[in-house]
Amino acid sequence: MSSTSEIIVEDSPGKRVLLMGNEAIARGAIEAGVRVAASYPGTPASEILETLAAAAPKLGFYAEWSVNEKVAFEVAAGAAITGVRSITSMKNAGLNWVMDMFMTLVYGGVRGGFLIAVADDPDAHYSSNEQDTRFAAHYAEIPCLEPSDAQEAKDMARYAFELSEQIELPVFLRSVTRISHASGDVELGKIEKRDRKPVFDKHWKMPWRWDVYGPPSAVEKHRWLHGQMPKIKKIVEGLPWNRLDLHEGQSVGVIASGIGASYALDAIKLLGLEGRVAFLKIGTPTPLPEKLVEKLLKSVTNVLVVEEGEPLVELLVKALAKDANPAVKIMGRFTGDMPPVGEINIDIVAKAISKLTGKELPSDPQLEKVREEVKKLVVPRSSTLCAGCPHLGTYWALKRALSKFGGKVPIVNGDIGCYEQGGYGIAGKEYKPSFSTESVHYKIEAPYETLDTNYIMGGGIGLMQGEFRAGYGDGPLVAVAGDSTFFHACMPAVANAVVNKAKGVFLVLDNSWTAMTGHQPDPVTGVTAMGEKTKTLCIEDVARALGVEFIRVSDSFDVRATQEAIEEALKSDKFAIVVSRRVCTLQAMRLKQYTRKKMFLEKDTCTGCRLCVSLGCPAITFNTEENKAGIDPIICVGCGICAQVCPVGAIKVGE
Amino acid sequence: MTELNLIIAGVGGQGSILASHMVAMAAIREGLRARVGETFGAAMRGGAVASHVRIGKGVNAPLIPRGGADIVLAMEPLEGLRNVVSFLRKGGLLLTNTHEWLPVDVNIGRANYPSLQSIKEAVEQLGGRMIAIDGTSLAQQAGDVRTLNVVMLGALAATGKLPISTETLKQIIMENVPRKTVEMNMRAFELGFNSLK
């Protein structure tokens, strides 16, 4: 038996194993002797800390799920200031929360190695945007490492700590979904045992090193930061992940960074162009290995830049070309040869290399035509909440409560978590833009049409207050958020609503876990990342302490009670909070806190009204020929919400 | 065989990702290079999931190019078709479970689920071949519907198209499923394997 969690802590250098990119980053940190790890869950980055947290008790280091990314960043930075090695990890959007500390910490840097590992999400598979965080590393003037596969992810993460200590600055590692959530064979390295004593010296190598306000000034510390760059540039020039493969007779070249290098290598193979294209593999998009870039630019006439995200390398290469070889033609996103949005793949890169080299792509137009024809058979599969999800009950109750306001136009402000699916819409349905000058009422056909706005963690509760301040009066104002989100980003907005006398209903969907990212504990769970029991914070207690006067708590599985609580809140003339509570069913089943029950649908009683179908539970089916609803016995967990929804009592809960 | 491009598709919760990892682990144990790329939406359960498995000496990227899959292994027919249309190569194989997991879009009357016959015809139009087995029933027969992924791996092994020995694959499965379920999973593997004989 050798599961991945056991392999991760095994000190067996040379062993080849399958690791997910995130596990590889964690393993790199473990090999480097990391002492403190802190993060907030966010796909596609969560498994970095999950892996570290599972390893921490076995290897004797510390790992935590912090309340948000900013706190996580500070926990890791504080550890690095005392000279030990630390890592913070987050998803793309998480970095936005840490920018304040990030931009300022670099003025004094760190003493122990500090790795900032960020997983971007081109194509927004799991994110609200496609932001390219490599620019943040550039902005902060620290080096960015960008792996092309799981092996490099592991090796770079390990090396990052050494580099960080050498330059006394944090080091940035930029992953993407196709690294973080892809797996590959990785050769393990040695696990370094580091038993450093944390130390503190406030004038270490620089007066007032850890206090940007300390004399001489922040400007002097900024000067110091600038002064590190020549040293960094010299180091990256010699790193093994920056490699130029250039031979005589090659007139065109490809510069490929991170995962782009893997796509480019496969595309070159697909085109049968091995050895015929000069190849510069980039492992540090910022700062670039400038000498290698210049050498390539001076040797070829045309260059294609392949990178995932925005054109950072392309921009920097263009700047270098001005002096190195102004005549060289640079293809990439600026020339439209790489797509402006979405993620790249072998096909996209092959097409661009085909244009670069004039070598035609193998194609079968007849088969492509058949593919387009056959595609019409494929129907969408909209993302849904799980069978038995407490949010299904809460959203049904909310829909019913809002329907009491007739044709009015409520605004339901969304937030980030499983319940954000309340705004995913229905893939099989066509939505058309409206150009109305008045508020428009839309029917909610499934819970996936409930949310009207959604952007970022904690965003909804703030937006609701703006809508109220604008004087919006065409319908009720609601904001929803989950338990983890409440602590992450909603508390300041709640305090704001109270002291500035805003009105509206804040519906907190408390399922006890950060469920969407894979059930990490949060402040209401009562357990830490390392599995220790801890205090459980209570959302209504916090709301009360923040001065909220109208608070109701309901059980999400009790649809009527939840509906009544929301109705009462909507009628209240105060800022109101409703906590709809029920442990995530998936997690409850896993922890043996929930026993599956069987549901029965009496076909004779069913009138085919489809009300149960509009509950949006994936276990409820509908047979159009019979005009009857059905329950998929494999998917159904027997939560009983649909039985409360059925107007004729056709659905019954069994044993 | 120098390279194998395999897609394992299904609905979130059907175990297709674990299945893909187990195939890749078996490949690595036999000294091959492996890549797995997962594609799935934000949802934990119920969403369309596909894992790209690439085995061979020269593989770099974790995703299979268009028309580059030798085999699509599907835990659910619609998800098989979804991947076949873009990825199955001429002469490729769709090995699918017959049990349908209806999308909410179909349940609310916004889309029609394609029949198994129409899926078969589509695969054949693309120059491929389809094998369909009732993997869900076999998994229930093995003792738990959650062994579906192992039933399908058994069937996959029986095609003889994997560049990995069946013994290595079985060994990897034993190491990666919960200890208490090893026996049941081995039963599931055999049921899947024999369904193709």
UniProtKB/TrEMBL annotation, chain A:
BP-aspect Gene Ontology terms: organic acid metabolic process; sulfur compound biosynthetic process
GO molecular function, a single term: indolepyruvate ferredoxin oxidoreductase activity
Cofactor note: Binds 2 [4Fe-4S] clusters. In this family the first cluster has a non-standard and varying [4Fe-4S] binding motif CX(2)CX(2)CX(4-5)CP.
Gene3D superfamilies, alphabetized: 3.30.70.20, 3.40.50.920, 3.40.50.970
EC code(s) of this entry: 1.2.7.8
Residue sites binding [4Fe-4S] cluster 1 per the record: 606, 609, 612, 646
Cofactor(s) listed: [4Fe-4S] cluster
Keyword Oxidoreductase: yes
Binding site for [4Fe-4S] cluster 2: 617, 636, 639, 642
The 4Fe-4S ferredoxin-type domain, residue ranges: 597-625, 627-655
Catalyses which reaction(s): indole-3-pyruvate + 2 oxidized [2Fe-2S]-[ferredoxin] + CoA = (indol-3-yl)acetyl-CoA + 2 reduced [2Fe-2S]-[ferredoxin] + CO2 + H(+)
Record keywords, A-Z: 4Fe-4S, Electron transport, Iron, Iron-sulfur, Metal-binding, Oxidoreductase, Transport
Pfam families according to UniProt: Fer4_7 (PF12838), POR_N (PF01855), TPP_enzyme_C (PF02775)
InterPro entries reported for this sequence: 4Fe4S_Fe-S-bd, 4Fe4S_Fe_S_CS, HACL1-like, IorA, Pyrv_Fd/Flavodoxin_OxRdtase_N, THDP-binding, TPP_enzyme_TPP-bd, Transketo_C/PFOR_II
Role this protein plays: Catalyzes the ferredoxin-dependent oxidative decarboxylation of arylpyruvates.
Assembly: Heterodimer of the IorA and IorB subunits.
Protein name as it appears in the record: Indolepyruvate oxidoreductase subunit IorA
Source organism per UniProt: Hadarchaeum yellowstonense
UniProtKB/TrEMBL annotation, chain B:
Domain named Pyruvate/ketoisovalerate oxidoreductase catalytic: residues: 12-193
Organism encoding this protein: Hadarchaeum yellowstonense
Keywords: Oxidoreductase
Protein name as it appears in the record: Pyruvate/ketoisovalerate oxidoreductase catalytic domain-containing protein
Domain of life: Archaea
A Pfam family it matches: POR
MF term (GO), any: oxidoreductase activity, acting on the aldehyde or oxo group of donors
InterPro entries hit by this protein: IorB_Oxidoreductase, Pyrv/ketoisovalerate_OxRed_cat, Pyrv_flavodox_OxRed_cen
